[in-house]
Design a protein that fits this description.
The chain has 14 helices and two strands. It is mainly alpha-helical. A two-stranded antiparallel sheet has the order 1-2. Helix 9 crosses helix 10.
């Protein structure tokens, strides 16, 4: 249905299967800073949850009846895809959010993330030391929760257009890159110099690639000519993603391998810097009379 490299890329975007992506393209994504789009994440779980819940309600179930079925199907999906750390974290947080909604309570992302991390580390403490996906997933999530909104409001990112969530993608990418850089430099030593720009250009397009690709696959199951027709439409965002990755990969990547101590020191410096920056933001928004006192 999809010629390469589009078939392998779509499989990676939809359900994290990168076996169909060539080694050259994997390296291209890694160098350009886009390797994360072919890894299952909270975004995939969110999309799947919305689709499943909507489909079950359309089939006649009430929201309360659809909730446990959706949770069960997501659990099956996580197990079938290997239960990677990033997906497990996203699934646990999703279960907590859906469960809270089901009983009429609000779900706080920070509490959900902390509980998800505690559960995963209780089951397998080695994740903290040996699983890069676990570390990157949690650090990126912390960054999004803690200060992505500040970046969107107080930095040049605020000048990006809101259309297609470009500003949101820019703020999220910036926050995630800042928090995950120490771990990336320590464990891989590879950092794409244009990663932020590349993510701003590509991340808003990923939902379209996922949606059109999924429609093409489902349509092909129903009637092959219809699936082929949708596949041609779905190739447009996939072609764009590959083209952007290949263009920026030409500039190479920064190879800076740092020690564990240096990574810890760098991360502590980032935490302190962000904390000071956020506090300055609060002080600037205080009433001038309070400031004078």
């Amino acid at each position: 249905l999809f010629p390469e490299p589009y078939g392998g890329l779509l499989a990676g975007i939809l359900y994290g299967d990168t076996s169909g992506i060539s080694t050259a393209l994997k390296n291209t994504f890694r160098v350009s800073g886009l390797a994360h789009i072919t890894a299952l994440s909270g975004y995939n779980i969110t999309i799947i949850s919305i689709v499943l819940m909507g489909a079950l309600i359309y089939m006649g179930l009430t929201r309360k009846q659809a909730l446990p079925v959706t949770i069960f199907l997501i659990l099956v999906f996580v197990l079938m895809t290997g239960g990677e750390a990033s997906v497990t974290r996203a699934a646990i947080m999703g279960f907590l959010a859906m469960g809270a909604k089901g009983i009429g309570r609000l779900s706080k992302p920070r509490n959900a993330m902390a509980l998800a991390g505690a559960i995963m580390l209780a089951v397998n403490p080695r994740l903290l030391r040996f699983d890069l996906g676990f570390l990157l997933s949690f650090l990126a999530t912390i960054a999004l929760i803690w200060f992505a909104d500040d970046i969107a409001k107080r930095t040049p990112v605020r000048k990006l257009p809101k259309i297609w969530n470009i500003r949101e993608a820019g703020a999220a990418s910036c926050a995630a890159i800042i928090f995950t850089t120490p771990v990336i430099l320590y464990m891989t030593g590879i950092l794409g110099p244009f990663a932020l720009l590349v993510n701003i250009l590509v991340v808003p397009i990923v939902p379209a690639a996922m949606a059109l690709g999924a429609v093409a696959v489902v349509s092909d199951m129903l009637w092959h000519p219809l699936g082929v027709g949708f596949s041609f439409i779905a190739r447009a965002p996939l072609t764009y993603i590959v083209a952007v990755a290949e263009f920026f990969a030409r500039f190479g990547a920064l190879h800076v391998k740092i020690s564990f101590i240096a990574a810890v020191a760098l991360f502590c410096g980032i935490i302190y810097g962000v904390w000071r920056w956020k506090n300055q933001s609060r002080e600037m928004t205080k009433d001038p009379l309070q400031m004078a006192r």
